[in-house]
Amino acid sequence: MEQLSNLLGGFADIMSPSALLFVFLGALMGTAVGVLPGLGSAMAVALLLPLTFVLDPTSALIMFTGIYFGGLFGDSIAGFLMNTPGNSTAIASTFEGHRMALRGKAAQALATGAIGAFIGGMVASALVVFFAPTLARLATGFGPAEFLALAVFAFVAISAVVADSAIRGVAALAIGLTLALIGIDQPSGSPRFSFGFSPLLDGISIVVITVSLLALGEVFSQAAKVGRAQDTKAVMPTGRWWLSKAEFRQALPAWLRGTAIGVPFGVIPAGGAEVPTFLAYGTERRLDRRKAEPTFGKGAIEGVAAPEAAGNATAGTAMGALLALGLPTSATAAILLAAFQQYGLQPGPLLLERSGDIVWALLAGFFLAMIVLLILNLPFAPLWAQLLRVPKSYLYAGIAVFAAFGVYAAGASTVDLVIMLVLGVLGLAMRLYDIPVAPVLIAVILGPLAEYSLRDAMGNSDNDPAVLVSSPITVVLYLLLLAGLAWTAWRRYAEKQAADV
Question: Which residues form the DUF112 domain (predicted)?
Answer without folding.
Answer: 20-441
